[in-house]
User: Fold DUF77 domain containing protein from Streptomyces azureus.
Amino acid sequence: MIVAFSVTPLGVGEDVGEYVAEAVRVVRESGLPHRTDAMFTSIEGEWDEVMDVVKRAVAAVEQRAPRVSLVLKADIRPGVTDGLTSKVETVERHLAE
Assistant:
């Protein structure tokens, strides 16, 4: 499964990069395949391991912010691996045609 999620601290002002970095650090330390862009972090793995990482990422931000917003989108497709790369490669292949 691939989960794209965004953790946003609320009540800490406009500059939230240092808080978001705490969540991304948890993802990177998980060892699971992942990508971070300007809006979301995507992570790939089995249901329990991915959801555990999301939960820990939220908890890392909760330690420093009075309120946290979580947006999550999941692609649940058993048997598919390396979806983070293969989905993008498919789109790039079509663009190159």
In short: The radius of gyration is 15 Å.
